[in-house]
What does this fold into?
Amino acid sequence: MKSEEERKEQYCGNCSYHNVYEYPSKIFCTYRLVRRLDPVVSTLWCCENWTPEEEECFCVEDAKKQAEST
It folds into this structure.
C-alpha cells in the first residue's frame, strides 16, 4: 500500500519549496530561485525536485477550480 506522500498529486502548489505569487495560478519557487532559474511557475506544474509539503495548502485545489472555470 502506498503512503500518503506517494498518493499525493505532485504539483508545484503542494511542494515544500512553494510560496504564493499570483494566487492561485502561479507560485514562487525558492528552489528554482537558488538555481538561478525563473522562480515564477504554474501552480499545477511540477519539476523533478518536487518535495511534499508538510502543511496542507489549498493552492492546487483552487488552481484546479480556476482552470476548470476558464
